[in-house]
């Protein structure tokens, strides 16, 4: 009997070895390579990690240099501070150029609107060995330690579960005022540093907990499930003595990283209430908005993203009687205090009104009722707009600036401004404004009795 068991176990081991070798040969034939490096293309990972690759391909990491929003913004930068700003853009949007140093060629390919310029690739994240807290930048070239596999040198790192992993790009200060110390620049994207101040962060939550939550591709609320089930008693006790790294956690599966570009996730980001109180000649509309996420919204670049809260009254024919609107977002100022400025010329923040992380915002408006006793409906909505055109007064100032430049230009410069720059800027602005449709995050209404 003992010999029979040994034979069965031996046969089982041979079978497993054969399967592994067969898979290894098949993978190496599909995409043969001598080992991955920090500059390897994503296609080098596809043969073994097909599902992950396919999800990544849908992500905005994959589209970091090809999305309409980036292409439009890059065009505006090109006409503004010029190609010299390309390095800052591409350090995060095309991470492989930090190894190759080929900034100029990649930027030109983007300006030529070539369709397949690489974005944030697999090794952009999986090759990071460390992120220093006094220098939030992707540390490439990186130190890569070999592991026991014939295919690549990438290994599982504890860093992959920490929020600092994302700081290299999602904490961004421009270089306008930077002289070696990143904190001296203008804070353009503060998603990660916002998060680190929250109760979530102190309890061991990371960016990956929500944005890579299992099932998030099919269920926009899956991040809430991951958030609510994250902390067992064992994990909390181990964290108290700084031993939480020894607690086995559920692996992060999703590589699509849905966020503000995902309508479902956007809608699940807030919790709202709507109350209406009628008086003799007016109605008091009150809304509370609880930001359930670990960072302020809207956030990130471009800075022209907005959330609009609208409160209004309609008569029985659908005509608006009275309204109130609140705008949430940020603006930047340039050296001449012009607002809204682009991030490449920003020297300070201007308008700064966002929905704070883990905070509840209350808005109340008293709207006038009609004199007659006809039925009235009170309504409220919360809408996310990805890019809002500058207001008319700002557009007028921009036009005046261009006119002054034309007056001081040579004939060749004047021809470029009139026939290339102005049409190019307008096309880029329109591209940004039409890149993504607005998202209705929330809507409520209540009919008032006559």
Helix and strand topology:
Layout: H1 2-30, H2 43-46, H3 50-58, H4 68-79, H5 86-93, H6 97-100, H7 103-111, H8 122-126, H9 167-170, E1 172-173, E2 187-189, H10 191-195, H11 199-202, H12 207-211, H13 222-228, H14 233-240, H15 263-267, E3 270-278, E4 282-291, E5 306-315, E6 320-333, E7 348-353, E8 360-368, E9 376-385, H16 392-407, H17 411-433, E10 439-448
Antiparallel strand pairs: 1-2, 3-4, 4-8, 5-6, 5-9, 6-7, 9-10
Helix pairs in contact: 4-17, 16-17
Polypeptide structure, described:
By secondary structure, the protein is an alpha+beta fold. Among the domains are: 42-144, no CATH class; 263-448, Immunoglobulin-like. Helices cover 35% and strands 18% of the residues. The protein is built from 17 helices and 10 strands. It has helices at 2-30, 43-46, 50-58, 68-79, 86-93, 97-100, 103-111, 122-126, 167-170, 191-195, 199-202, 207-211, 222-228, 233-240, 263-267, 392-407, 411-433, and strands spanning 172-173, 187-189, 270-278, 282-291, 306-315, 320-333, 348-353, 360-368, 376-385, 439-448. It has a 5-stranded antiparallel sheet. The chain has a 3-stranded antiparallel sheet with strand order 3-4-8, with no helix packed on it. Helix 4 packs antiparallel against helix 17 (411-433) and helix 16 runs antiparallel to helix 17 (411-433). The longest helix has 29 residues, at 2-30. Mean pLDDT is 79; it is low at 4-33, 134-149 and 177-183.
């Amino acid at each position: 009997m003992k010999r029979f068991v040994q034979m069965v176990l031996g046969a089982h081991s041979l079978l497993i070895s054969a399967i592994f070798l067969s898979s290894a040969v098949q993978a190496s034939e599909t995409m043969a390579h001598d080992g991955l490096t920090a500059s390897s293309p994503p296609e080098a990972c596809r043969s073994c990690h097909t599902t992950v690759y396919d999800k990544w391909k849908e992500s905005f990491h994959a589209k970091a240099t090809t999305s309409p929003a980036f292409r439009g913004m890059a065009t505006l930068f090109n006409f503004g501070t010029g190609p010299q700003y390309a390095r800052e853009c591409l350090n995060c949007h095309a991470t492989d150029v930090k190894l190759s140093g080929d900034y100029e060629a990649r930027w030109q390919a983007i300006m030529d609107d070539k369709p397949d310029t690489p974005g944030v690739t697999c090794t952009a994240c999986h090759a990071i060995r460390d992120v220093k807290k006094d220098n939030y930048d992707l540390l490439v070239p990186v130190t890569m330690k070999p592991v026991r596999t014939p295919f690549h040198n990438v290994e599982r790192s504890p860093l992959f579960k920490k929020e600092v992993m994302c700081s290299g790009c999602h904490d961004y200060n421009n270089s306008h005022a930077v002289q070696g110390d990143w904190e001296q620049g203008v804070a353009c994207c503060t998603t990660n540093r916002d998060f680190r101040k929250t109760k979530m962060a102190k309890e061991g939550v990371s960016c990956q907990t929500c944005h890579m939550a299992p099932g998030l591709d099919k269920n926009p609320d899956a991040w809430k499930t991951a958030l609510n089930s994250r902390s067992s008693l064992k994990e909390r006790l181990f964290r108290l003595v700084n031993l939480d790294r020894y607690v086995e956690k559920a692996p992060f599966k999703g590589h699509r990283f849905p966020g503000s570009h995902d309508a479902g996730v956007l809608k699940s980001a807030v919790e709202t209430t709507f109350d209406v109180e009628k008086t003799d000649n007016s109605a008091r509309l009150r809304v509370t908005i609880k930001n359930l996420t670990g960072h302020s919204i809207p956030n990130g670049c471009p800075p022209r993203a907005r959330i609009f809260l609208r409160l209004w009254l309609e008569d029985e024919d659908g005509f608006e009687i009275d309204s109130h609107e609140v705008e949430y977002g940020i603006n930047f100022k340039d050296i001449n205090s012009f607002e809204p400025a682009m991030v490449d010329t920003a020297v300070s923040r201007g308008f700064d009104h966002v929905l704070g992380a883990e905070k509840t915002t209350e808005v109340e408006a008293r709207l006038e009722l009609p004199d007659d006793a006809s039925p009235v409906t009170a309504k409220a909505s919360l809408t996310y707009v990805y890019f809002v055109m500058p207001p008319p007064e700002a557009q007028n100032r921009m036009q005046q600036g261009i006119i002054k430049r034309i007056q001081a230009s040579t004939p060749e410069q004047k021809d470029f401004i009139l026939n290339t720059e102005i049409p190019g800027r307008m096309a880029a602005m329109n591209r940004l404004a039409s890149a993504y449709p607005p998202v209705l995050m929330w809507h409520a209404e209540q009919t008032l009795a006559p």
